[in-house]
Every structure is written in structure tokens, then in C-alpha cells.
User: Fold these one by one.
Assistant:
Number 1:
Amino acid sequence: MSLYVNEIFYSLQGEGGRSGEASIFIRLTGCNLQCDFCDTDFATGSPMNPEDILQQISEYPCQWIIWTGGEPTLQLTEDIITFFKNKGYKQAIESNGILPISPLLDYVVCSPKKDYAQTKKNNPFADEIRIPVRAGEYFPSPEELSVARHYFLSPVFSSDPDETDANIRYCVEQIKLNPVWKLSLQIHKLIGIA
């Protein structure tokens, strides 16, 4: 029972419904999508068993794990989730939602990027839906998505500040037109933390 882990780090959740909360991020290797705006290195990693991961994260005074990637559902099993649950950890996942997500997790973020119907079929409920959006780009209505407690539009951050500003303005306009959506900024990028 091992996982290919790209990185483990301790920081604040930078976006969405748990924004600002201390969390241990475990980034798993591999993804089933190749989004052109992705800003994470998820192609490389090292095998780690749950005991190795536990030893590394036990130094942090936090009981929240965020499984992220890449796409964590490609590797994360219910046995691994149960292992960390039995050690007292709460666990969240950030997934594109194409594959089924375990109901054992404490907080589910679906961030569908392409196959919205498949996400809704495999994961009919989520704590939050977070859609990355560029200016002028189509995004689905909440009715086309899984039922969730929160619906967020997340402007894509670019190396071009003007493009980032345009993406933010577009999301703000769309939220004002349909207030079921909320704005999720990547505050970790705005304040310069990991």
C-alpha cells in the first residue's frame, strides 16, 4: 500500500470554502487531464507508504490533510483514507471529479474542467464545486454540476497580470449575474505563500 507523492507541505488553504485554514497538503503524482493552465508539477514523485507519510506530517500541529495533485483519485484508496482517519486526521480532497470520490473523506472539492456530465454522474454531491475560469470562457451552470454546498468561480492566474485582472473582472461580472456563485481567489498566490 504505497502512493507516489510529488510533495508534502504545510500551509494555509488558499482558496474555496476552507480558505485560510491551516492544512497539510499531500500532492500525489499523475493526472488524467492535461489542462493548459495547470500550475503544478505533478509528473514526478517518489513512492511512500502511509507510515512514511505519517512520520513526515506528524511534526505539524494540524489535523487536516488535503489530498491534491495532479488527480488524487488515481491513487487514493479507502484503506489509506481509513489509515489516516484512525490516526485522528480529517481529510479533504481536491479532484477533477471524473472518477468516483470516497464517501469516507470529510470535505470534497470537485473542480471539473472538461467532462462536467461525468463528474456529476460519478460524484453527485460535493462540499464545493470550484471552476477555474478565463475571461470570456464558457463555464457550466450549477444545474449542470453536482449538488454542492458552495459554488465557486476561480479566476485563472496567469504570468501576465493584465490577463489575470481580466479573468478576475470576468468572474466578478458573472457572479453578479448569477449570485449562486461565489468568488474564490488564490490568496496563497496573492500573499506569496506555498
Number 2:
Amino acid sequence: MVSRLVINLYLKQEKAINTLVLQSHRTPLPSPWLDACIESVLSWSVLNDFEYRFMGDEFFDVVPAALLEKTAHLKVIATDLARLKWLQHFLVQGYDRVLWCDADFLVFNPAMFQLPNLPYALGREVWVQQKADSGALKAYKKVHNAFLMFQQGNAFLDFYADSAERLLAETTGPMPPQFIGPKLLTAIHNVVQCPVLENAGMLSPLVIRDLVAGGGRALDLFRQKSPERLAAANLCTSMTAAGELSDDEVTAVIEVLVTNRAC
């Protein structure tokens, strides 16, 4: 007689979802704290028996040469397209589920960072900043592409990738860095309400500084406007590159998040 344990193990194997987690960044890494972020995603992948792949320069091989040239001054735009094409590629290769995590995406509470049983999901952005006219704090609720998840048979990835590539090809004027990333995703989301993994967030400089300080108005507003407490967050390398944050501040917030396992 087959034991209940054997049956349960068999069912668990039958239901296992073949998952790939994908990341990429130029090397050597420009900031030491990026190692901690990448390691957190790798460790979380191992914890969940997900396959993990980190890509180097070959990451841009899937972007048409004309679009690489067009976005040479803003490599982040080419990156936003490349991730979509690789996600498509690996679904075609037979993975049941593929994920993208930015290199500055930190999983600080791996036990609580659980993937939803949905065809696809985007990350949540609650961006707290000061108004230019009054200096008052305001939270802007959007979605982001620092975390993306797609399963076999989803109806969104091909549409998004095709729309992004077509916009890049047809646009002749200046393009903002987030053109086919958060800006396009948020525009689509505002109309169709895409599924969102609410605890896959993003932290603005003001929220990061409040976390390091142990509290503050920006953090209070962030928590008020966030649908859930975060288990993972994008730490915005672009803000350190622009001088909005220092490497020391990001290193400090990583320690706070990993220690407290909450945001």
C-alpha cells in the first residue's frame, strides 16, 4: 500500500513549476552594495528551487542593432526592451515561469516574498518626493518593471514587448529614461489594472533616508499609501548615479532592511 507521504511527495513533484530567475548588469559592478542585492535574489532563488541565470554583455544581443544605436545615450531603455525579449525567449525554451529582477532589487524577507498564482505580475512603486512648488510630500502610486513575472500562456508579455519595440522604432523625439519601462507600464496599468505583486516595491531617496534614520514623514506617507508591507524592494541605482543618494546611504538601508525584515 502506497503511503500518504509518498503520495504527497509525488503530487508535490507533479505540481512543481519550472521557474527561471533572470538578472543582468555590466561588470565589474559600479557599487559594492549591488553584490548584496544580487546575492539576495540568488539566495531566494535557491531557497525556492528556482533556476537562476546572470547575464553579461550577451544580454543586449536580442535588441535590434538600429534600436541599440538609437538608445546608445540611454542604455536603460535598451535594457528595458532586452529583458522582455529574454523573458519571451526563455518561455519559448520551455520554462513554466520566468522572472526578471533588477540588479539593485533586494529580497530582504525571503520567507514572505511568495510568487502569486497568476499569469503575470508587475512590481509596485509608491514614490515619495517633495512637490516642487510647495515642498510638501506627495506619494505617486505606479507600477514598475524592476520585478516582472510571467507564466506560460500569459496574454500580456507579447503585447507589452511588441508595444515597447514599436514605440522605440517610431519615436523620433527625445525619450525619457523610463519611456518603455515604468512610464509605459503605468499607462497600461491605469487602463487595464494589471496584476501587481504588492510586496515587490521600490524606495525613493526620501524613504531610504527615513529608514536609515529610524523614521520620518516620508516613511510614514510611504506606509500609508502602500497596499502591503514590503518583502523586497528596488533601491534605485539611478539615484546614486545622479547624486541623489550616496553608496553609504544605500549600504545602510540594506542593513536596516535585512535586519528588520520589514519596511
Number 3:
Amino acid sequence: MFFPAFKAVYLCAVHFWVREYLSPWHRLPSSVGLPICFILKQPLFTGHICSENYGISWLKGHHEPLISIETFEKVQACRQGIAKAPSRANLGEDFVLRGIAACASCGTPLRSSWSTGSTKRYAYFLCQTKGCEAYGKSIPRDRIEGDVGALLKKLAPTENVIALAKAMFRQAWDQRVTHARAAVTSAKSQLTAIDKQIDGLLTRVLDATNATVIRSYESKISALEKEKATLADQLAHHAEPARDFDEKLELTLRFIANPWKLWEKGNHALRRTLLKLAFAGRIAYCRNKGARTPEITLPFKALGGLEGKGV
């Protein structure tokens, strides 16, 4: 599923591209738009051409694609999925811990809300599970976020552990390069096999006289053309890493060495990502005792184990 912001950017880009470059719509004024459903279901934006009228199926075009085939398929799945509820005032960037902070008494995710005082507004969390001993008792948002920041400070490993992690990342990087090369080789072999199948089916189409049989062959060829286009798209994305190991590693180690700095200075999206990378589940929070020690993710757990062994 897509994040709403990404979906909006995608739609705007597609709308602009269609309006500016595609005939006959490129002559339309900027005030004239295209139906959203038309934009979302067109394979044209993956860099391919499909037409039932002319019998064209996933033909590689000469125009630059806006999205990958994988993204296109995700869009179709999103279109056929369940509609999402509209945004609310107590969501968004004001409550980064919504859905992550949970009541320590009942385990239910804490609700976020705003209250209005005589001179300012106050952000807070509270448990709204009836029967819970913490029901209706508010907790200031800043207090919870401060306690979570203290938990993140404890995750920072020592320099020796960082050095060991660098060696481990080097090994993982080499494995990634090897895997990328193997994936490229496998994809090329599959493309060759698909080309042979298509050639064989085309030969059968030329020899066939039954209309039903011909339509069956054409349907199979269309499916193979789509599979071929998908493999070609995956082949382009399985290339070896463009940047070298040290350039990639610097950002990774910066995050592992000081996760709490990203928590203090990062924006909403980065802080949400940080929480998902650092903690394996929700953070139980007690109104009187603060945050309980949550389960951390494997990278920090592994580094913590190495540090405990005196590395």
C-alpha cells in the first residue's frame, strides 16, 4: 500500500506528463484534467504500450517511464483495496507515537488528542479502553516523547561494537553484490526462455486455422509479453549498487551510533521510520512509571549482545 503523500506526488506527475506530452491531450488547457481512474490504470506510464484494438501487449516504448511495473501493480492492488478513512486532526505530524505507544495496563494503543486551555492548546495521549485502570487519564505528549528519546539513547553502541559492525556490513555488502549479479544472470536466462516460447507460439499462430485456437495463442503471447516486460524491469533494478561501500556505510553507521539524534532533529517521517527500525513492537507506557523497556529490533539486539560480551 502507498503512503498518501507518495500517491499524491505520483498522480500530479502523471497528470502533468499526460497533459504536456501525450497527443491529443497535450493541447488541452491546464484547467482541463483527465479522469483519475484513467491515469491509474494505464501501463503507458511504465514505459510500455498496450492496446487491445491493435493487438499490442506490453511493447517496450521509446518514452521514459514514470514508474516501474512493480509500482504499477501496487497501484492496481491499491485501487481494488478497501477505502481508507479521511484524515483527522489528531493524526499527522503532531503525534509521531500514535499507534506505537500503548497503555501499559491493557496493551491498547493510546489515543491522541488536543485540549484547549485559556491561552494555548495541549497535546496529550490517553487510554480510552473502558474498564482499564488508566481509562481517561491523560499523559502529555512531550513527556512520552522525552521518555522514548531516553530509550533511544540507551541503544547507542560503543566504538568497538561499531568497528565490528563495519566488518559485518562489509561482508553483507559483498553478498549483496554477488546476489545482484546472480539475479541479473537468472533474469537474462528467463528472458531468453520467454523469447523462445513467444517465437514458438507465433509459429503456431501462423500455422493455425481455427479462430478459437488462434485467440488462445494470442492470449498466451500477451501474458508472456507482460512477463517479459516485468523481468526486464526487474533486471534494470537488480544492477550492482551505484555507490560504493563506504558512501553507503557512513549513513548506516551514523544512524546506529546515534539514533537519538535523529529522534531529536528529524522530521515526522524520519522519526516514524526510526521507531520502526529500532523497536520490534509497540512501546508500553505507564502514566506513573513511564515507558517500559520495549523489544528492540535485531540489529540493535545483536549489537547489544556483542557489547555485553565485552567486544
